[in-house]
Every structure is written in structure tokens, then in C-alpha cells.
Design goal:
This protein is an alpha/beta fold and 582 residues long. Helix content is 28%, strand content 18%. The chain has 17 helices and 27 strands. The strands form six sheets. An eight-stranded mixed beta sheet has the order 3-2-1-4-12-6-13-11. The longest helix is centred in the last third of the chain and has 20 residues.
């Protein structure tokens, strides 16, 4: 059985600085060992037969493994894991006054290598021509926080770039640091040379050293570790290009994470203050998704943004990535069940409203600004991920959820004066409903899937349109609410709580971390167990009168409407857009 390749993350102690003028490290994928003698000969022709030349083999994309020719100056006779490990293994014994790295996928002559190694004062990439004739002039950060762009312009002058992205580089001894061990070659080279430049407070540059050809470029593997590195450049200055403005076009998502590459473009900015928004939700398209809660959430949020003069489109699961999304100014991911890749052509906002345990730190770091509907989770996630996570609670639409005029409805209304629950079974036992059944409460349940789980007399409608839900909340004596365990622990208050309170109703919910600090209201009560629920559902228990309920509803409408949330989102989107345009 073939042993797994070893990851070499660095070296022990300080890197030895040698008196040798130049150290050349030849890296080779494990199935291209036959190309190593060619580059060894080039290095010795350029620098002399006694030149410090070393070779290191690495496995990439599960590449096959060639044998190790004993005539080659191998650093080790087993391949390491990726080009980052190869760099570190190659230089661990020390480097001369200049380090040159060249991979066997590169073809150059002695004259070009000699120029690359001459008078090196900063990390430098040779200008490269690929097998199809494309140029590679280094990596430009055209959108901070997104994958750098491989500059393919027909430039004729040497000059600064954000980082290298081709394995034919040189750097001064004093600047050498360890390379990151990542599965994506381009990001390894860019991150390494950026770190080298930072170490000596300089920039990376590209140089025309003569004919340099790249015979093959590997495919890209952009995993969470790569995304984390790229996200760490969010605060870096954008690399200037000749394209006016800061427009980019995003390409298809790269596996496995789904980060999207970018290409700069000219983009005309509107000055009317109206931004184009794409609100991404997890609901599937068509009738299968029409009943999902995030559809109503997104539609009501979109309406609020439109009232602020914004242009808004709601994209369901099948439209998370669109060919025309270069025109979007803001991408807002309302995070439920699905992770959605950011669109680097726009400002990217993430609003976590449910299923917080599914949200990774890398996902948080990949957005320009992050909000969470749970204060407890927001604080913990921010500390863990190292990025700000702002609390933005769920909301209600007062145009739909508002008190009925006059007294609480009675008479022919089947929900009047009863204990009401609106929602599906979700495929799990909903304890607050089962406890109400066990207590013999005068229960009425609306939603699909309840037949056989509650008494027939408790069955309401299998579905209700939004205004009927609002009437049920206003009519009920008490409305029941519950939360997924991870949402309760993270302080995610269900939007049902806001809907009931805005409708002038009374809501009894299960415990939610920090709820008392957020909503201390007379029409909201918490049942910690069945005994407490029994007292709260007792028909004889007094609740606030109509006037007090209306006062609560007015407060909820002012502080927790989608209009209030939309204004927060718009302010942040404008701020982030201004930052990206600098």
C-alpha cells in the first residue's frame, strides 16, 4: 500500500542563511520526474556546475509516482503533499542570498534563469506564456476578499502585482518564509509571495526575463482552507487596472467550496442611489417551495427594500448562481438550509436566520458583512470566526400582522379564545403541541401533517394564507411557539413571535437564550416545562386587555418590522460598496 504523502508545514527553528549566491529549488509533480534533469542542467548552465540546486517531488490531484533517479539531487526520496510542502522541504536546509523556485511544468533557458536570479530585492515572478499562448503576469487583487485574477493582459513593462501565481519565482534570502500547504497551486504561490513581501515591507513584482513557457497548468481545488486565506485579504487595497471603476464578472463556482473566480470589467455606476439586490433563499422553485417560511420572509423583506427605493429580485435554490448576476449590486443570503457562494461581483451580506449549527466559520469569513438573528450565537460566532457578526433579529410585516379593530374576535371565529398553533409537524415531535394535547387544552392546530397526532377536534386548516394566519393570531387566547434546539440555544427568536405580538396576540414559547433581554413584554410568556405551560394555558389566567396589546403591537411594528431591518441592511450595503470602490 502506498503511503500518504507527508505535509511539510515549515522547519524547526530559524531558517539557515547560507553564503551561497543562489539556491535553486526544482519542484516536480510526482509523475514528471523525467523533467527534473532538464531544469537541473539549466540551473547549472546559468549559475555554474557547483550551483546549489535541489529537487523535491510532490503529489497533486492523486498523481502517480515515478521512481527517484539517484543522479538527481533529491531533498528526499518520497513525494510530499502538494507544492507548498515541496517548497518548504526544498528550503528547510537553508537558502543562499537569492532563492529561485521553478517547477518542471515550466520551460526556460539558462539566460532567463540567470535574469530571474539577478539583483533580486523583492519577490519576483517571471512573465509566463501558457501552452495556449495566454500570458500570465501574476495575480491581481481586483476584488478584495475574492480569488485574485490571473493577469493575462499583454503588458510590456515590469511592475508590481498582488502576488505570484506561476511557479517560477525568485526572492531575497532575508524575506523567505514558509509556504502555506493548500490544495490550490495558485493560492499557495500568491499567499506565499504576499507573505514574503510583507516580511520585508515591499511588494511582489513581475519581470520579463526572456522566453518562459508553462506546458501545463493544474486544475483548481478551492476548499475551505483556500477560502479562509482569500478572505483574509478582504482588508487589502485593490490592485489598480486600466478598467474604470471596480467592476468584476464572476465565473462559475470552483469545487469543492464553490468560491467564484473573477475577471475585471468596466462597469457603469448609477448615481440615483438605487441598488440592485439579489435575495438568496433555500426554498426550491415552484409549488414545492411556495409554502416555505423563507419565501414569505424574503418577499416581505424585498417589499421593504423596494419601499426604500431599491430594486430587488428573490432567487430560490435553482438560481443561487446566475449568468446575469454581474449586474447585482448586493447579494443578500438569507441563510437557512443551504450555503450559498458569495457573488464577488457584488457586495455580499449574510443573514443567518435559522439552522446556525450548519454555518461554518469559513462561511462567515467569506462575506463582506454578517448578521445573525440570534444574539447569543452572534457573539460566540464572532469570537470563534474572528469577524464581526451583528445581531439582526427576525422581523414582521405590520401591513399583514396588526391588531383587529375593536375587541378580540369571538362568535363564529373557530380560533377565537382558543390555544392556536400554526405550522407543520416538520417531521419531528413538537413538544409544545404534544404537551398542550396532554394537558387537554382547547387546542386548534393549522398546518399539514397533524392528522392522527392531535385530536380531530383540534385540527384546523392544512394551510392558511398570510392574512388568515394574522387573523388566527389576533383571535386566539394564546398562540403556541417553539424553536429548534440549536436556535433556542443561540438566541434565535422565531419570526412567529414577532408576528403574533404585532397582530395584538399573546404568545407562549419555549425558552430561548437571552429572550428576556430582548423582549420583556406582557403578551409574551415562556413555558419552561409542562407544569408552567398548564398555568399559562388555563382559561382563567388573565392576559393584557386590548389597549395594552395594541401598545405592544405598535412597539413591535416600530422596532421589529421588515422596514427597520431593511434600513439596517441598506446602510451596511452602501458602506461596504463604498469600501470596495476605493
Amino acid at each position: 500500500m502506498t503511503a500518504s504523502p507527508v505535509r511539510v508545514a515549515g522547519w524547526d527553528g530559524a531558517l539557515p542563511h547560507l553564503d551561497t549566491p543562489v539556491t535553486v529549488v526544482v519542484t516536480t509533480r510526482s509523475d514528471r520526474h523525467g523533467e527534473v534533469p532538464r531544469l537541473i542542467a539549466v540551473a547549472r548552465a546559468a549559475l555554474g556546475d557547483g550551483a546549489d540546486v535541489r529537487a523535491v517531488s510532490y503529489v497533486a490531484d492523486a498523481s502517480p509516482r515515478d521512481g527517484f533517479d539517484p543522479a538527481v539531487p533529491w531533498v528526499r526520496t518520497d513525494p510530499v503533499d502538494g507544492i507548498g510542502s515541496a517548497v518548504n522541504a526544498g528550503i528547510a536546509a537553508g537558502v543562499g542570498q537569492t532563492l529561485v523556485l521553478v517547477d518542471t511544468s515550466v520551460v526556460l533557458d539558462a539566460a532567463a534563469l540567470r535574469v530571474l536570479a539577478h539583483d533580486v530585492r523583492r519577490p519576483t515572478q517571471a512573465r509566463v506564456v501558457t501552452a495556449d499562448g495566454s500570458l500570465r503576469n501574476g495575480a491581481l487583487l481586483v476584488r478584495p476578499g475574492a480569488l485574485p485574477w490571473a493577469d493575462d493582459r499583454p503588458v510590456s513593462q515590469d511592475g508590481p502585482v498582488f502576488g505570484a501565481d506561476q511557479p517560477v519565482v525568485s526572492m531575497p534570502q532575508r524575506a523567505v518564509v514558509a509556504a502555506p500547504c493548500l490544495p490550490d497551486e495558485r493560492t499557495v504561490l500568491t499567499a506565499w509571495t504576499v507573505a514574503v513581501a510583507d516580511a520585508v515591507s515591499t511588494t511582489v513584482t513581475t519581470r520579463d526575463v526572456g522566453p518562459v513557457r508553462r506546458t501545463v497548468e493544474p486544475g483548481r481545488t478551492v476548499d475551505a482552507a483556500v477560502v479562509d486565506v482569500v478572505a483574509s485579504w478582504r482588508g487589502r487595497a485593490r490592485t489598480p487596472t486600466e478598467y474604470p471603476g471596480s467592476g468584476v464578472v464572476a465565473g462559475p463556482p470552483l469545487p469543492p467550496w464553490g468560491a467564484r473566480p473573477v475577471t475585471p470589467t468596466t462597469r457603469t455606476e448609477d448615481d440615483d442611489g438605487r441598488l440592485s439586490w439579489s435575495v438568496k433563499i433555500a426554498a426550491p422553485a415552484g409549488a414545492d417551495g411556495d409554502g416555505w417560511g423563507d419565501v414569505h420572509f424574503a418577499d416581505e423583506l424585498a417589499a421593504a427594500l423596494r419601499r426604500l427605493g431599491q430594486r430587488v429580485r428573490v432567487d430560490r435554490r435553482d438560481a443561487h448562481v446566475r449568468p446575469d448576476d454581474a449586474g447585482d449590486d448586493v447579494t443578500l443570503v438569507v441563510r437557512g438550509l443551504d450555503r450559498v457562494p458569495p457573488n464577488p461581483a457584488s457586495v455580499n451580506l449574510l443573514w443567518v436566520i435559522s439552522h446556525p449549527d450548519d454555518v461554518s466559520d469559513t462561511e462567515l469569513r467569506s462575506f463582506d458583512a454578517v448578521f445573525a438573528a440570534g444574539a447569543v450565537w452572534a457573539a460566540t460566532a464572532a469570537d470563534r470566526a474572528g469577524v464581526p457578526v451583528r445581531t439582526l433579529l427576525q422581523a414582521t410585516d405590520p401591513a399583514v400582522f396588526h391588531p383587529v379593530s375593536g375587541a378580540v374576535p369571538t362568535g363564529d371565529d373557530p380560533d377565537a379564545g382558543r390555544v392556536v398553533f400554526v405550522g407543520s409537524t416538520r417531521g419531528v415531535e413538537r413538544a409544545v403541541v404534544q404537551d398542550a394535547v396532554a394537558l387537554g387544552a382547547d387546542l386548534r392546530v393549522h398546518g399539514p401533517g397533524w392528522a392522527g397526532l392531535v385530536p380531530p377536534a383540534a385540527l384546523g386548516a392544512p394551510s392558511l394564507e398570510r392574512r388568515a394566519v394574522a387573523r388566527a393570531y389576533a383571535s386566539a387566547r394564546v398562540v403556541l411557539n417553539d424553536h429548534w434546539p440549536d436556535m433556542a440555544a443561540g438566541g434565535f427568536v422565531s419570526n412567529r413571535v414577532f408576528d403574533v405580538l404585532a397582530a395584538g396576540g399573546v404568545v407562549v414559547t419555549d425558552p430561548v437564550a437571552g429572550l428576556g433581554d430582548l423582549l420583556d413584554l406582557p403578551t409574551l410568556a415562556v413555558a419552561h416545562d409542562r407544569d408552567e405551560l398548564a398555568g399559562l394555558l388555563d382559561p382563567a389566567r388573565p392576559w393584557p386587555d386590548v389597549a395594552e396589546r395594541s401598545a405592544v403591537a405598535t412597539r413591535i411594528a416600530a422596532e421589529h418590522s421588515f422596514d427597520a431591518r431593511a434600513q439596517v441592511l441598506l446602510d451596511v450595503a452602501r458602506r461596504e460598496r463604498a469600501r470596495l470602490r476605493v
